[in-house]
Amino acid sequence: EIYDAGPRWAARTRGGVGADGGDGNDGDGAPAIQFFVKASGGELYLNRARYIADTWARQAGVRRVTFLFDHQNEDAVDELGRSAPWVEIRHVDGTDRQGEYKRGRGNKAAAWEAQRTKTRAVFLDYVTDDPPDWVCYLDDDMLVNVSNLRRDLAEQSRTCAHCLVADAMGRRPEGDGWTAGGWCMNRPLAKRTAVVLDGRTDESLGWTNNDDVSFNRAVMKGAVGVRPRSSPRWYSEYSRPVRTEGGGVRKVTVHDDVNSRAIGAVYDFCRTRDGWRDDVDDPRAFVESLAVYHMDFAHCVTAGSSLANLCPKWCRHEC
């Protein structure tokens, strides 16, 4: 997984990193993608949705990005839909408590149930008579270079018939893999997964917790029989670039660092990741070569960026 900042992957952007320069046209042979973004009407999260709508969602194609909101702050959320008619807004019932797992005394069971409900909503919306080639479900703190993602998915599909592409994590190479920050599935796999979800309850699947670790263990590996493929073009908040002896860059995840005892615990990874810019020759070119990445990678290389205010406070780079 060596980073190559050559021109084929350095898709230049308009409006700063995260605002891909493509035109959203699928007629060039590149795969068509339907995006779903897990969103919330809370002020911080609504501002993230506004940023996405004004940047990479413009380039994804008309109504190719659907925000899955809860019912918080509905008037302001619906105003976003009116001001950005190229995106779709959906309010998903029963998901107002999706973020409670982050609160000290929050109801984790309610949060996980909301996450599972939104994940099911992705498949209900995507599986139509003629769905696009790929479906992607992303957290609202992830950014997309649409042109690079299309290239990445086209390359991935050459070596897998049923593809689940992500920044894949795993405590052990042979263990349960999980997807950090979101995932993309090709149409055959999405249809298979939709059939499984349509025919079984969360309880019967053993899908008892969240929409990443538990979803991948119980649904994707347990019921569908697929583990995620880690793309070198995806960087979540749990990955960082490291310079190789040959002068390239490879991706290191939080579990790599824990297993090598470079850090003692998951939450120590943020301090380790802070120095990522020292491991690449041109940080902006590195970010522009990626397909999907956490917004924290972008805010330090975008002049006048407001992204720092949208990043989670517990894991934010100092520029």
Report the mean per-residue pLDDT as an integer: 83
Shape: globular
* Cα radius of gyration in angstroms: 18 Å
Strand order of the main beta sheet, please? 3-2-1-4-9-6-10
Helix content: 25-40%
Strand content: 15-25%
Query: Which series of helices and strands comes N to C?
Result: EHHEHEHEEHEEEEHHHEEEEHHHEH
Uncertain spans? 1-25
| Total E-strand runs | 14
So how many helices? Answer: 12
Structural category: alpha/beta
Summarize the main sheet: 7 strands, mixed
- Termini gap: 26 Å
Produce a short descriptive summary:
The chain is 34% helix and 17% strand. The protein has helices at 43-54, 56-59, 74-83, 108-126, 146-156, 187-199, 202-205, 213-224, 254-259, 269-273, 283-288, 295-299, and strands at residues 33-38, 65-69, 88-91, 134-139, 142-144, 164-166, 168-169, 178-179, 182-186, 229-230, 234-235, 239-243, 249-253, 292-294. The protein is globular and about 50 Å long.
Keyword list:
319 residues; 7-stranded mixed β-sheet; disordered N terminus
Give your account of this protein's structure.
- 34% of the residues lie in helices and 17% in strands.
- It has twelve helices and 14 strands.
- The strands form four sheets. Strands 3-2-1-4-9-6-10 form a seven-stranded mixed β-sheet, sandwiched between helices.
- It is globular, with a radius of gyration of 18 Å.
- Residues 1-25 have low confidence and may be disordered.
